[in-house]
Amino acid sequence: MATTRITELAAIIADNTKHIDAHLAQRGLPSPSFDPDSPAGALLHSDVIASRRAILEATDELHALMRGPVDILTRQPVSTLYKPYNSWISLQAIVKFGLASSFPDGKDEATFAEIAATSKLPEPVVRRLLRHAMAFRIFQEPSQGIVRHTAASKTLADTPLIRQWMGMTSEELWPAATRVGRLITTLHGSLVNH
């Protein structure tokens, strides 16, 4: 049976964790913990920096694979390197301008120029939006200038209910959420007097 990507990732995590664990034990350093006395620089030693990076990249990818495309698009993780709201910066425009549906018919790959032409947006704007979304595993750029769907972007393109939910969230709920505090501050005097 062929090795799957998730088992490859698990092996990368396990192998590199063993390497770091051996490095720490060899130097008499404690294992990483959330304890305030945990040594801050133990995992920045040149002997383990590559293993640390491999673990972080593999756990990030495994985390995204376990979440799946709908969860990536609709539910934000409890903890992530990037705060959840950052993905909405590009997603709002991707939904509004239909960028996930702007690929040539039947294709899962297109150039930034093709997507720009279909969406009627300037190519530099499309490039920035899609590359921002790529940081959240929504689209990918397998080679320079070529955009390929990921499971998340394909779900966005092919599932009207997801698109509608994201449109409503980004166009109605998100803007309202950013104004509640200002509204309360503005109306504070009249609210107190009633």
Number of strand elements: 3
| Overall pLDDT metric | 86
Distance between the termini: 71 Å
| Major sheet summary line | 3 strands, antiparallel
Percent of sequence in beta strands: 5-15%
Secondary structure category:
mainly alpha
DSSP summary: helix tally: 8
**Strand order within the widest beta sheet:** 1-3-2
Q: What overall geometry do the principal axes of the alpha carbons give?
A: extended
Radius of gyration of CA atoms, rounded to a whole number: 22 Å
Low-confidence stretches: 78-83
Order of helices and strands: HHHEHHEEHHH
Share of helical residues: 55-70%
Summarize the structure in short.
The protein is mainly α and 194 residues long. The protein is 60% helix and 5% strand. The radius of gyration is 22 Å and the shape is extended.
Can you walk through the features of this model?
It is a single chain. The chain has helices at residues 5-26, 49-74, 87-96, 112-119, 123-134, 151-158, 160-177, 180-192, and strands spanning 109-111, 140-143, 146-148. The chain is mostly helical and 194 residues long. Strands 1-3-2 form a 3-stranded antiparallel sheet. Strand 2 (140-143) and strand 3 (146-148) form a beta hairpin. The chain is extended, with a radius of gyration of 22 Å. The model is unreliable at 78-83 (pLDDT under 50).
List the keywords.
194 residues; mainly alpha; three-stranded antiparallel beta sheet; 8 helices; 3 strands
Write the layout of secondary structure elements.
Layout lengths: L4 H22 L22 H26 L12 H10 L12 E3 H8 L3 H12 L5 E4 L2 E3 L2 H8 L1 H18 L2 H13 L2
Antiparallel strand pairs: 1-3, 2-3
